[in-house]
Amino acid sequence: MKSLVIAIITTVSLAGCSSVPMESKETENIAKEFNAPSKDTAGIYVYRKDTFVGAALKKDVWIEKECVGQTAKGVFFYKEVPGDEKLEISTESEFSPNTLTINAKNGELYFVEQFIKMGAFVGGADLELANTDTGKSEVQRLGMAKSGNCDSKLK
């Protein structure tokens, strides 16, 4: 019974709603065209599905040492980065950042899902590279958040 009560309290604490500043509909619609990135760059979409788990949490996302922005449920970011480079994409988590490394190639689009996972004290976050079709499909359902506004400093 005690574990059931703890599970319910944890779920409720992770299930509220949180919001972040959003881009204009025009900017969002352009990003959802999935055009090729500018010359000598790769395009990175970072998204967080519109799910119940962790809805109250906002989590920062970084590409290299630059703040991409703060996610909430149901948002995405788009950022062009130097192509033909190895890049680290990081997200804050409970005890330390979680990092995904990708080899970004010129002219390519990449889709990175940030997801919330249960933690010891608060929900953590992690990142996973999604295939292009899945990434495009997910981004089409989401709103585009404004870049910047990170609360944490990358460790």
Distance between the termini: 39 Å
- Residues in helix, %: 10-25%
Order of helices and strands: HHEEEEEEEEHE
* Uncertain residue segments: 2-17
Rounded mean pLDDT score: 84
In the CATH scheme, the class would be Mainly Beta
Main β-sheet description = 5 strands, mixed
Rg, alpha carbons: 16 Å
Portion of residues in beta strands equals 35-45%
* Beta-strand segment tally: 9
Structural class: alpha+beta
Count of individual helical segments: 3
Question: What is the CATH fold-level name?
Answer: Immunoglobulin-like
What is the CATH architecture annotation?
Sandwich
What gross morphology would you assign? globular
Any idea how many domains? 1
Q: How are the strands of the largest sheet arranged?
A: 8-7-1-4-9
Which SSEs are present, and which pair or pack?
Blueprint: H1 2-14, H2 25-31, E1 41-48, E2 59-63, E3 66-71, E4 75-82, E5 85-91, E6 98-104, E7 109-117, E8 124-130, H3 132-140, E9 143-144
Parallel strand pairs: 1-7, 4-9
Antiparallel strand pairs: 1-4, 2-3, 2-5, 5-6, 7-8
Describe the structure.
The protein is 19% helix and 38% strand. The chain is of the alpha+beta class and 155 residues long. Strands 8-7-1-4-9 form a five-stranded mixed beta sheet, covered by helices on one side. The N terminus is likely disordered.
In short:
The protein has helices spanning 2-14, 25-31, 132-140; strands spanning 41-48, 59-63, 66-71, 75-82, 85-91, 98-104, 109-117, 124-130, 143-144. It is an alpha+beta fold and 155 residues long.
